[in-house]
Design brief:
Shape: globular
Strand order of the largest sheet: 1-3-2-4-5-6-7
CATH topology of one domain: Rossmann fold
Oligomer: single chain
Radius of gyration: 18 Å
CATH class of one domain: Alpha Beta
Order of helices and strands: HEEEHEHEHHHEEHH
CATH architecture of one domain: 3-Layer(aba) Sandwich
CATH superfamily of one domain: Alpha/Beta hydrolase fold, catalytic domain
Structural class: alpha/beta
Distance between the termini: 47 Å
């Protein structure tokens, strides 16, 4: 990756970055990325809080068994469209896109990390409309509504995110060390490709909006099979509790770290192939 040049005109404070967002238009339908072409019932994947999904192209062949796979990026990730500010609002936009590709079920959905709540909400809406869904497969899934941390506003979440990145990647000056930080984020798959410095800060503002929606979400009951795959280090987090709202849920922990590693794990691969068999029966 080449060196990033940050012009002096680029601003990084939250208010200025957030002010660059573009108005959303009623009826807009996000276009998912085709992660793999194929035949049969498609799989739709919702993104984690960083908002990117293209990295999944490298792993979907492990589990898709010839089926097409579509992945959603966070709304506004590339065009700075103002993102929806709640999980139900995000789910509704994704659901419109899903129905354009697949008007009727059975549906196969999967969610990554914070996107698990979005996939869960989409599944709930489909079930309520009489469609067949599932099994629902969620990766590193936690419930933001169970987070007991103090609620922060978007500006504070944005500042917290920047401070967290600087600490994680030992950047004493985030602006000066941005090239190093972004290299590390690409390696962790928090970015799919290098982006301009100005876009980097927009994406952290978008992260703040996504996280705010995540912690303010309240999920309802869903009575379908739900498989939750958790990295072992997160298995005992208080937010990893699903059985009270999804009584047919099963949580599996595994000795991996990233979401991509989970989707390559034999347990996940087996669950996806079982899902294909069930919806094709």
């Amino acid at each position: 990756m080449g060196t990033i040049t940050q012009p002096s005109s680029i601003v990084t404070d939250f208010a200025s970055v957030w002010a660059t967002r573009q108005p959303a238009h009623n009826g807009d339908v996000p276009v998912p990325l085709e992660l793999a072409s194929g035949e049969g019932i498609p799989v739709f994947i919702t993104p984690y809080t960083a908002g990117n999904i293209a990295f999944m192209r490298d792993v979907v062949d492990n589990f898709r068994d010839g089926h097409p796979v579509y992945g959603f990026e966070a709304i506004g990730l590339r065009d700075r469209t103002e993102p929806p500010r709640s999980v139900p609002a995000i789910a509704e936009q994704y659901l419109r896109a899903i129905r354009r590709i697949q008007p009727h079920g059975p549906y196969l959905l999967s969610g990554l990390c914070g996107g698990s709540q979005i996939a869960y909400e989409i599944a709930t809406r489909l079930v309520q409309s009489g469609e067949q869904v599932g099994p629902l497969n969620l990766v590193n899934a936690a419930r933001g509504e169970l987070d007991t941390s103090p609620r922060l506003d978007l500006c504070d979440l944005y500042d917290m995110r920047l401070a967290s990145l600087a600490q994680r990647f030992t950047a004493t000056d985030l602006d000066a060390d941005l090239d190093h930080v972004m290299q590390q984020m690409c390696e962790l798959q928090w970015l799919d490709e290098p982006v301009p410095a100005s876009d980097f800060y927009w994406r952290q503002a978008l992260w703040a909006a996504s996280y705010d929606a995540f912690v303010r979400c309240s999920l309802g009951r869903l009575d379908i099979p739900v498989n939750i795959f958790i990295a072992e280090e997160s298995a005992h987090d208080p937010e990893v509790r699903w059985h009270d709202i999804a009584p047919r849920s099963t949580v599996r922990s595994m000795e991996v770290v990233t979401s991509a590693q989970i989707t390559s794990h034999p347990a996940f691969v087996t669950a996806m192939r079982d899902a294909f068999e069930q919806v094709s029966a």
